[in-house]
């Protein structure tokens, strides 16, 4: 489903309300809420809202478990760190138990070994056969990538691993990412996409020919869950189905 908002502020507010509702329902049903966060610029406003009233007091933080959808393999103090951004914008300001927050980074370990450790962590958290996040937040780059599933990379063909790390040559850095098969198990996936610079990629992903090698966001098709596209009018400007 595609939901088009006037601007980023409106979109972020709705996304915060959806975060709260999803968290409350998950806790009511299963006693806990498991979410994977996205990085980049798209979620900054949403994360800030989650640390403010009325949202902050509505989230069942004590029952919330925070993972990441992907990470740039840089220390937690680095400006590029997705975990650092989430910590600064909301995690350091809300009463989530620190031991329930799992950044995709650790010192003194190679990224590939870390990816295996993170996968084990997820296996322990979830039922092995049923690794269902209650909510996965995703962004989409203007090249159509999502999480760290970049165009033309091997990880796009991963069929069994839940977490992978690889060297992304054009950025000269390692990336760690949940794989598409794991993401697609989620109960709910929400893409946050705004800005004119995303309009071409959004059109190709949603209305263009299927070509996930070029537009990896097309790989995100949950098995039993739902995918929501929260987009603003600029990003949606090329979509025919929205008009
Ligand atoms: O590199 C990344 O980019 C995507 C998109 O970022 P945005 O700045 O366009 O929102 C992001 O979803 C991902 O987490 C991040 O590692």
Short structural description:
The protein has 243 residues and is α/β, with parallel strands linked by helices. It is built from 6 helices and 9 strands, in the order βαβαββααβββαβαβ. The two termini are 14 Å apart.
Task: Explain the overall architecture.
It is a single chain. With 243 residues, this protein is of the alpha/beta class. Helix content is 27%, strand content 19%. It has one domain (2-238): Rossmann fold (3-Layer(aba) Sandwich). It contains six helices and nine strands. It has a six-stranded parallel sheet with strand order 1-9-8-5-2-3. It has a three-stranded antiparallel sheet with strand order 4-7-6. Strand 2 (33-37), helix 2 (44-50) and strand 3 (64-68) form a beta-alpha-beta unit. Helix 1 (8-30) packs across helix 2 (44-50). The protein is globular and about 45 Å long. The mean pLDDT is 96. The chain binds the ligand O=C1O[C@H](COP(=O)(O)O)[C@@H](O)[C@H](O)[C@H]1O. The site of ligand LXAUTJHC has 13 residues, from strand 4 and strand 5.
Salient structural properties:
27% helix; three-stranded antiparallel sheet; six-stranded parallel sheet; globular; 6 helices; 19% strand; single chain; alpha/beta; binds the ligand O=C1O[C@H](COP(=O)(O)O)[C@@H](O)[C@H](O)[C@H]1O; 243 residues; Rossmann fold
Please tell me the CATH architecture by its name: 3-Layer(aba) Sandwich
Q: Class by helix and strand content?
A: alpha/beta
Percent of sequence in beta strands: 15-25%
Principal-axes geometry comes out as globular
> What is the number of domains?
1
- CATH topology-level name: Rossmann fold
């Amino acid at each position: 489903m595609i939901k088009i908002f006037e601007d980023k502020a409106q979109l972020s507010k709705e996304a915060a309300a959806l975060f709260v509702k999803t968290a409350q329902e998950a806790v009511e049903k299963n006693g806990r809420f498991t979410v994977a966060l996205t990085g980049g610029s798209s979620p900054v406003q949403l994360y800030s809202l989650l640390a403010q009233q009325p949202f902050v007091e509505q989230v069942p933080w004590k029952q919330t478990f925070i993972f990441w959808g992907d990470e740039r393999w840089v220390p937690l103090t680095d400006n590029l760190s997705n975990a650092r951004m989430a910590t600064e914008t909301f995690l350091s300001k809300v009463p989530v138990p620190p031991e329930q927050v799992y950044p995709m980074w650790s010192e003194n370990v190679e990224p590939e070994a870390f990816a295996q450790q993170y996968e084990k962590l997820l296996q322990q958290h979830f039922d092995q056969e049923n690794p269902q996040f209650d909510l996965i937040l995703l962004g989409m780059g203007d090249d159509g990538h999502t999480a760290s599933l970049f165009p033309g990379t091997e990880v796009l063909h991963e069929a069994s691993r839940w977490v992978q790390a690889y060297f992304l040559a054009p950025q000269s850095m390692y990336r760690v990412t949940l794989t598409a098969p794991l993401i697609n198990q989620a109960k709910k996936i929400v893409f946050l996409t705004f800005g004119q610079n995303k309009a071409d990629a959004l059109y190709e992903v949603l209305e263009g020919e299927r070509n996930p090698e070029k537009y990896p966001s097309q790989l995100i098709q949950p098995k039993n869950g739902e995918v929501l596209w929260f987009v603003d009018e600029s990003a949606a400007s090329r979509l025919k189905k929205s008009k």
